[in-house]
Specification:
The chain has 22 helices and 20 strands. It has 575 residues and is of the alpha+beta class. The protein binds adenosine monophosphate.
Length: 575
């Protein structure tokens, strides 16, 4: 397929703000999409591989600037200047390529979708000496033969900022529209299930094209391929939780760590986070625990990895172990200083059989059979099965005493639904004043903090529009000095380094930042406010931890903020 055809589609889709129209345009495209062109679907989502694949393009603004400069024969400074004026490197490329075309009167050779994918896919694999030059030449090769419009979209794809308003759910709805005549609702549900299991839009496209719902059910779990985890809803109190999940139910500790999915096949163990990131290398001790204490040729376990203090044996908070998720060096030292215990609470697959449709109780019983609990290594998540509110309350208190976040209530007969926030698993935690938010802007500091960002704009997601809405500015909780020694927290310069490659616009001292980084923050109060476009402002927001295991879509939403605000108001009223 010619890349220009895909660009035309991008234009048509971004030309309408209406979701239904976007779906219609897309459905028409999908109907005509040949099997040989199916990978164009990755590009439509702004990606180059399936969601389950960890490889991301990861190109910085600086590198893109160099590539635009080289391919259009423009000085670097001029590209930077244009960027400052226009504020979008894609548009800068469009303008400069167009200028070049006019001056050379060259007709461009045809860029194909396959060629774009081929070149972009080489980028994440490059390593070592000369990497930057090689990357620039791969991009330059594309830009040199691209039309202005193609250049715009190539650059936006490179920067993971396509801006056409297509989400996985848009493709899902369009697939249902294109290939199913009746029962749209059922089709949408089945397609979503297939996406959540496979995390591969192309695989789901192939299945959907056959037009039979039962074909979609053939999308299987695959060991070694990450799956989206099942998520919990929130309950106000124990009574409400019992009402939602029924009696008796299972109640478990809600551990304050991070989600870890453990895949095992033969002698190989692979670990994933809830973001589908492979963290196998970072946790060699977990591999040993699994091999030693969990029986079975193949399985997928769902668990929470929690930090503890080796001396006191007390559980620590997530904040303490967050660096273990990303750090790729000094693994042994970290493993020694920041040990984790794996708390297994679910099983999705065992010896060749998917267990998603089995009742939770059966899954839990299987865990007890195959995992030998070994404290401070790998254990069964602490659980009681009860109908008694008093017992539930005692268990909850004990969880808090043990430094955990709260408890989870789970319906005993419920199935496992990957990727869904379900009403049969509920969390209860104390009325905390904390939120997971996304950094969408920052401001350079002055004096001893000049050159670094010293305050950060926090945003929550509006689930209706998908936009990030500002809710406050945060500067406290971040450290002055590098945290390389202590390992806990983050300093201004470390956070600045993380955010710089994500800058999308600069004006004076303030910058806009691509929503990628999730931070856990605490605050004193939520107030209504005309100053931020969310309509709310946080009083005294304070940084507590980076959440590298969470993606912006896992962050708290405007709806969550409104609910917390409502709860806070009730508390004012009733003391
Ligand atoms: P939250 O991140 O506040 O939405 O809470 C849900 C998270 O709690 C899950 O994604 C897990 O990482 C974590 N969690 C801790 N203990 C459990 C448990 N026993 N069952 C399920 N999830 C748990």
């Amino acid at each position: 397929m010619k890349y220009s055809k895909l660009c035309e589609l991008y234009d048509n889709i971004s030309g309408t703000p209406k979701r239904l129209e976007k779906t219609d345009i897309l459905a028409k495209f999908l109907k005509e999409l040949a099997d040989s062109d199916k990978e164009a679907l990755y590009l439509l989502l702004g990606e180059i591989y399936a969601d389950y694949d960890e490889k991301r393009i990861g190109i910085s603004n600086q590198l893109v600037i160099k590539a635009i400069a080289k391919s259009t024969g423009t000085p670097n400074e001029k590209v930077v200047h244009e960027w400052k004026v226009i504020g979008d490197l894609g548009k800068v490329a469009e303008k400069l390529v167009s200028k070049k075309k006019q001056s050379t009167l060259s007709s461009h050779s045809e860029v194909t979708v396959q060629k774009v994918l081929e070149n972009l896919r080489k980028l994440p694999d490059l390593e070592g000496k000369g990497t930057v030059e090689k990357k620039i030449s791969l991009i330059t090769e594309l830009l040199s033969s691209a039309s202005p419009k193609e250049a715009l979209y190539i650059i936006r794809t490179l920067l993971s900022d396509l801006r056409i308003g297509i989400k996985e759910s848009t493709i899902r709805d369009a697939l249902a529209k294109a290939f199913f005549k009746e029962s749209k609702k059922d089709a949408i549900r089945e397609i979503q299930d297939a996406i959540d299991k496979s995390n591969d839009i192309v695989e789901v496209f192939e299945m959907t094209k056959k037009g039979k719902l039962k074909d979609l059910k053939k999308v299987h779990l695959e060991i070694g391929k990450p799956i989206k985890v099942m998520l919990a809803q929130k309950a106000k109190n124990i009574k409400e939780a019992f009402e939602a999940v029924g009696k008796p139910c299972a109640i478990e500790y809600k551990y304050d760590g991070f989600r870890m999915l453990i895949h095992k096949k033969g002698n190989e163990v692979i670990l994933f986070t809830r973001r589908l990131e492979n963290v196998t290398k970072q946790f060699p001790e977990v591999i040993d625990y699994v091999k030693k204490y969990a029986r079975g040729d193949s399985f997928i376990l769902d668990s929470e990895a929690v930090g503890f203090n080796r001396q006191t044996k007390q559980y620590t908070s997530f904040q303490n172990i967050s660096q273990r998720i990303r750090r790729k060096y000094d693994i042994e030292k970290l493993q020694d200083e920041l040990p984790v215990e794996v708390n297994v609470f679910d099983i999705l697959y065992y010896n060749g059989e998917a267990l998603l449709d089995k009742p939770f109780k059966e899954r839990t019983e299987l865990i007890r059979k195959i995992v030998k609990s070994s404290p401070y290594k790998i254990i069964h998540a602490k659980q009681i099965i009860t109908s008694d509110e008093k017992k539930a309350n005692e268990f909850y208190k004990q969880a808090l005493k043990d430094n955990q976040e709260g408890v989870m209530f789970k319906n005993l007969t419920a199935i496992y639904q990957p990727g869904k926030r379900v009403g049969h698993m509920l969390k209860i935690k104390p009325e905390g004043r904390d939120l997971d938010l996304v950094i969408t802007g920052a401001e350079y500091g002055t004096g001893k903090r000049s050159g670094w960002f010293s305050s950060f704009i926090l945003s929550c997601k509006d689930e209706k529009t998908g936009k990030y809405l500002e809710i406050g500015k945060m500067g406290t909780g971040v450290k002055e000095k590098s945290t390389a020694q202590s390992g806990i927290g983050i300093s201004f310069n470390e956070l600045t380094e993380k955010l710089k490659p994500l800058i999308t616009k600069e004006s004076g001292k303030t910058v806009e930042i691509k929503p990628k980084i999730v931070v856990a923050i605490t605050y004193q109060e939520i107030q209504p406010s005309p100053n931020y476009n969310s309509g709310f402002a946080l009083r005294f927001p304070r940084f507590t931890a980076l959440r590298p295991d969470k993606s912006p879509s896992d962050a708290n939403t405007l709806d969550n903020v409104k609910k917390d605000f409502g709860r806070q108001k009730r508390n004012w009223r009733y003391g």
